[in-house]
Specification:
The protein has about 210 residues and is α/β, with parallel strands linked by helices. The protein folds into 2 domains: about 1-90, Rossmann fold (3-Layer(aba) Sandwich); about 95-200, Rossmann fold, CATH 3.40.50.720. It is built from 7 helices and 9 strands, in the order βαββαβαβααβαββαβ. Strand 1, helix 1 and strand 2 (about 25-30) form a beta-alpha-beta unit. Helix 4 packs across helix 6. The longest helix is centred in the middle third of the chain and has 16 residues, at about 95-110. It is elongated, with a radius of gyration of 22 Å. The mean pLDDT is about 90.
Length: about 210
């Protein structure tokens, strides 16, 4: 019997997984876990403090951790490597939501929407200073990171008329980017850039880059 521990909130995907599992695989959720069952977990789906608690057990039998995030820097990577535990992420799964959030933040900035929202909570209205309002059209956007998330941001930004360039390690071309640069050649684009977006993965080389 293979035992999976789901450290995620109950949702449609989890319900579907429960229905599709073969009979020799059981799925447990965090709210149904007992102390004695912790050492019987073979696969962890998601990650939180309970996962760390399981890995601290001397007799744990975890063989695979499947995260629901692209980044895995919060996990004990050295321990996983030492104990030969398979680690899989979900690169690209959040591209749509993050890209829409980025576009929303850009619109909020150029259209003065944050000021309007604050005034709304106070039941006040003051005309915005029109010389401070602008549009995204024809603005230059430079995205550090041209993977799934960066590409979706570039696609949406291009659709509203922005000129989009990207930065990656080799400077290789990527969909929806008019031009791409390496880390060392990117400064030539910075002088003309109106907006910088950072979606680089967190690694030793990118931490505190900005």
């Amino acid at each position: 019997m293979t035992t999976i521990l789901a450290l995620v909130k109950q949702n449609d995907a989890l319900s579907h997984l429960q229905q599709e599992l073969p009979t020799d695989v059981r799925l447990l959720t965090a709210d149904k876990m007992t102390a004695s069952a912790l050492s019987q977990i073979d696969i962890i789906y998601g990650w939180n403090q309970m996962g760390q608690q399981i890995l601290a057990l001397p007799d744990h039998q975890v063989k695979w951790i499947q995260t629901i995030s692209a980044g895995v820097d919060a996990l004990p990577l050295a321990q996983l490597q030492q104990e030969h535990i398979l680690l899989a992420n979900t690169s690209g799964i959040h591209a749509e939501s993050i890209a829409e959030s980025v576009l929303g933040m850009l619109l909020m900035h150029v259209r003065g929407l944050q000021q309007s929202a604050v005034q709304q909570t106070k039941a006040q209205w003051q005309k915005p200073e029109h010389h401070r309002l602008t549009t995204l059209k024809d603005k230059n956007l430079l995205i550090y990171g041209t993977g799934h998330i960066g590409q979706r941001i570039a696609e949406l930004a291009t659709a509203v008329g922005m000129h989009v360039s990207g930065v990656n390690r080799s400077g290789h071309a990527a969909p929806y980017f008019a031009a791409t640069y390496t880390m060392t050649t990117a400064p030539r684009a910075l002088a003309q850039t109106d907006v910088i977006v950072n979606v680089m993965p967190l690694t030793a080389s990118t931490q505190h880059f900005f």
